[in-house]
Design goal:
84 residues, mainly alpha, 4 helices, 44% helix, globular, Prot_kinase_dom, ATP binding, Kinase-like_dom_sf, Protein kinase domain-containing protein, protein kinase activity
């Protein structure tokens, strides 16, 4: 569920290429930070509703140096926060 764009979760739009890009971006951030999106939330209907209300997962301010050598968290955050 945390990899699905809010407009798809809400039922307003079907899966589109933009929604796939959002999900891919979430996966990239997870791989880069070693942190699951919405990790402190239960994956349930309440989380789905909050995502539809535009809840966004937190992004670590610093990336784990063991996972990524050349990516700056400041470069990822603007892409991640875009509304497609």
């Amino acid at each position: 569920m945390p990899y699905v764009a809010f407009e798809v979760l809400s039922g307003d739009n079907p899966f589109t290429q933009k929604a796939d890009i959002y999900g891919f971006g979430i996966i990239i951030v997870e791989m880069s930070t070693s942190q699951r999106p919405f990790d402190k939330h239960e994956f349930n209907l309440k989380l789905a509703v909050e995502i539809c209300k535009e809840l966004q997962p937190k992004i670590a301010s610093e990336l784990d140096a063991n996972n990524v050598d050349s990516i700056d968290a400041g470069e990822i955050k603007p892409f991640y926060q875009m509304k497609w």
